[in-house]
Specification:
Distance between the termini: 32 Å
Radius of gyration: 17 Å
Oligomer: single chain
Largest sheet: 9 strands, mixed
Strand order of the largest sheet: 1-9-2-3-5-6-7-8-4
Strand content: 15-25%
Amino acid sequence: MWQAVFGDLRPGCPSSEAEIARAEEELGFALPDSYRSFCRDCGAGLAGGLIRIATPLPFEAADLVTRGGLIAHSVGSAAQALAANPAFADRPFRFDVAGDDPSVLDRAFFFGETLDGAFLFWDVRGTGEYDIWVMGADLESVRFGAESLDELFRALQGPRAGAILGPEAEPLPSRFEGIEEAVLARAGAPANPDAP
């Protein structure tokens, strides 16, 4: 499937079934099939020259559980700081959610980020595939992305890129550049203290 999504696919460090199962146990929800397939077939890396998807790995720099928690903490802290900033007293901070259903943020789990500061999250409601949303780098705009990860990358390679990433966004190249295990190992400590 992923060779059809990325014309130039150079896989990185893949996630094993045991690592995927560990992430599901720690998170308390099943990971979507399209994402599971991405983790096995593409692994850690950079999609379209812009997007890093966190995957279940024993390296903090790329691990889904670690990165998801860090992103959520960062977004929450930034939102609190903006809400408390007196410079914005005349315009209270609020998320601008496409479709006007802010409850999607209550069910958000962050799993990716762009090099220009946007964040990808799932609306972890139901089972199977979860809707994918993109929070802009402004931390206010929240746009619907797609219903699965492969659908998201296909959309980002075409005219819908601007509707998903923001009006200035150009379609992304059909490319995935993987990051090898040795590079991830040099990037920092293991995500799991029991890992080698």
